[in-house]
Amino acid sequence: MTAEIFIVDDNADIRNILNDLITDAGYSTRVAANFNQALREIDKKIPDVAILDVKLDKGDNDGIQLLSHIKSKNKDVPVIMISGHANIEMAIDSLKHGAFEFVEKPFDQTRLLNFVSRAVENLNLKNQNKEYETKLFSSYDLIGNSKNISTIRDQIEKISITDSRILINGPSGSGKELIARKIHKKSKRKEKPFIILNGALLDNNKYEQELFGEEKSDGSISYGALEKANKGTLLIDQISEIPLDIQSKILRVLIDQKFKRINGTNDVRVDVRLICSSNKDLKNEIELGDFREDLYHRISVFEIHIEPLNNRISDIPLLINYFSKKISENYNIKTLKIDENDSYILNHNWKGNVRELRNLIERIAILQPENKEKISNIIKESLKSDNFHEKITENSLSVPLKEAREKFEKEYLTVQLKKFNGNISKTANFVGMERSALHRKLKGLGIKEFN
Hints:
Blueprint: E1 4-8, H1 12-24, E2 28-32, H2 35-44, E3 49-53, H3 62-73, E4 79-83, H4 88-96, E5 101-104, H5 109-138, H6 147-159, E6 166-169, H7 176-185, E7 194-198, H8 207-212, E8 214-215, E9 221-222, H9 225-228, E10 233-237, H10 244-256, E11 273-278, H11 282-288, H12 293-299, E12 302-305, H13 315-330, H14 343-346, H15 353-367, H16 372-383, H17 388-396, H18 401-419, H19 424-431, H20 435-445
Parallel strand pairs: 1-2, 1-3, 3-4, 4-5, 6-11, 6-12, 7-10, 10-11
Antiparallel strand pairs: 8-9
């Protein structure tokens, strides 16, 4: 598709020169002669690339206002600023506001065309990366045969067809966003937007603007997450990190089903399905006074809890095989041959959960080791700082032999039970014990059996 270049200049001769130059180069164009006309065109449709005169009809820096307005709608759009009154301060100000390039008038036509060509390439690259990341992430499946993952799959099937608000709780990297995406993809809203607002990454002064949007003095509108997600799904990630005063405003929106933009006078009504996620126990946050109890009850009509990877070791071999195939396909290399029963992997303390495991496999893919031995070395080098064997050795050196043996047996058998999803027969067969003997051993070590 041909890129569209938006040209804004109050000088008709320059507009015509730019228009002819850019259309001759094979691009499509739109033009505006003043600030208000430009504002209407931007609000109508965001261009692929913009060329803006710094000084238009409203003041000395109204081109900078248009630049900021474009960036508020899509920060990836490259904007080339031009001026016949250029100085260093003006150039720096433009770049600070996100300009792609700054060009002085009279401009060299070849140089300007090179800037346009680079801007289009830059935008295409960003769009390709976004498409790749979205495709890569949304194509991931919820992998595992543990009881926890099986339960979550059933929950997704049942709640996706409803519009109930959902709270997803679990540690960082465990797959909360993936679960939210799966719910959206299976819902009646699947063709509509899926918008993510991360409560932990926002500046304290920007929560309201990011949620509700803003009506600016120049008449332009910056839309917030609630309007962007209209008819679709809004995921508020890390909702526990949102300040109490903003929590009360979210609660008011959920009660009234309407809100006002910052500086706005009219009510805005939207139809949004709300999903929230947290790696903190919100009931505990309520006890601490850091989260509103009434908001908790509003957002947790249905709760999903995903356990840490260490609690579902039986999922690890499946995840290794799955990520090995997926990542090998993405890097266009032979499928990685990773031993899914590697003790370093099974016994590692996965603080980063599934994300950490995926990153390990991606690291192996990037390094492209030639054989299993080199793969094993990468795994050991990557995981050695938190390895099960090192922990056992360290803990065992300061206690009597009998106690050290008991500690090892308890750790070892607990890991094996998790690996086989609590199946006593499979665990006994793997460790080389009779079923009845394993029952006695587990009881003696105080290890609870589970299904």
